[in-house]
Specification:
Elements: H1 3-16, H2 19-25, E1 26-32, H3 47-60, E2 61-65, E3 68-73, E4 77-88, E5 92-96, E6 99-104, E7 110-122, E8 125-133, H4 135-141, H5 149-161, H6 163-180
Parallel strand pairs: 1-8
Antiparallel strand pairs: 2-4, 3-4, 4-7, 5-6, 7-8
Helix pairs in contact: 1-2, 1-3, 2-3, 3-6
């Protein structure tokens, strides 16, 4: 695959959860520097972690898309400028050190904001990922920053009633289930 195909493939995996594409695009030693705010399964090395990351994002955002605006590359890295788009229909749960940090109840609002991703390449596959994201714009689109009073009250109510913890447990299980599609699978290529 060309570097451009690898970049498009990685974001297609996040959109679709395609395990076959994950084994074609993602190196077994893949590490995601951005996994710190996601369920622990997203930090699993290799294709399983990427599948978990996609499941985590798709659980919060329907019609998740990553239209690419530009790509630049050399033999070891690809830089991708894109937009993250979707509709916030499920709880968007963020984590810190594997524990619930914040749960944003579904708002039904659309998100559309820019990101820049740096992908490290090795052996014709993606082996590393880090991103510069405009999370402030996304949180503004969701009514979280600056906090809209109604959103702030819903987030507080979710935390107090345990819905935030249940949402975190649910999305953690979904991410782990997606990762397990390839873990221990004899067909998983190395």
């Amino acid at each position: 695959m060309s570097t451009t195909d690898l970049a498009h493939g990685l974001f297609r995996i996040l959109e679709t959860g395609d395990p076959a594409l994950a084994t074609d695009v993602v190196h077994q030693d893949f590490r995601n520097r951005e996994a710190a705010v996601s369920p622990t399964a997203c930090a699993i090395p290799g294709p399983p972690g990427v599948l978990a990351s996609g499941a985590w994002m798709r659980s919060a955002f329907d019609d998740l898309r990553f239209p690419v605006l530009g790509i630049a590359s050399n033999d070891e890295q690809v830089w991708v400028r894109l937009r993250m788009q979707g509709r916030h229909t499920g709880p968007f749960v963020r984590f810190r050190d594997g524990a619930l940090d914040q749960a944003i109840p579904p708002t039904g609002r659309d998100i559309d904001f820019e990101q820049i991703h740096v992908l490290e390449l090795r052996d014709g596959k993606v082996v590393g990922h880090e991103a510069v994201r405009d999370d402030i714009t996304m949180l503004g689109q969701l009514g979280v920053f600056p906090p809209a009073p109604a959103t702030a009250l819903r987030m507080l109510a979710w935390r107090v009633t345990g819905r935030a913890a249940r949402a975190a447990a649910h999305v953690t299980a979904e991410a782990a289930e997606a990762a397990s599609l390839l873990q221990g699978n004899p067909g998983h290529s190395h």
